[in-house]
């Protein structure tokens, strides 16, 4: 019985201090913003990539708020973002 308890405690300690800590770091790596053009790490408030000058943000033509270049609608005023395709 004591051996079983020691084994369970060893697994619990392993999970809490080693396994869980390593997997949290892996999840944080996925949250890093990257430039869609060159893959360079960029801050979420950057307007352009400092390496390749790819446009990351633009201003909504209706309300003037900064929005992501790939969004179809402004999350602030709900206006459709015309990407100018075919112009």
TrEMBL record:
Organism whose genome encodes this protein: Thermotalea metallivorans
UniProt domain DZANK-type: residue ranges: 35-78
Pfam families: DZR (PF12773)
Name of the protein in question: DZANK-type domain-containing protein
Listed InterPro entries: DZR
Lineage: Bacteria, Bacillati, Bacillota, Clostridia, Peptostreptococcales
């Amino acid at each position: 019985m004591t051996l079983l308890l020691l084994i369970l405690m060893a697994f619990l300690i392993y999970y809490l201090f080693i396994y869980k800590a390593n997997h949290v770091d892996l999840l944080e790596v996925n949250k890093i913003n990257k430039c869609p053009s060159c893959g360079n790490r960029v801050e979420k408030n950057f307007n352009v990539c400092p390496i390749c000058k790819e446009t990351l943000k633009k201003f909504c033509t209706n309300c003037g708020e900064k929005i992501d270049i790939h969004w179809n609608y402004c999350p602030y005023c709900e206006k459709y973002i015309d990407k100018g395709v075919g112009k």
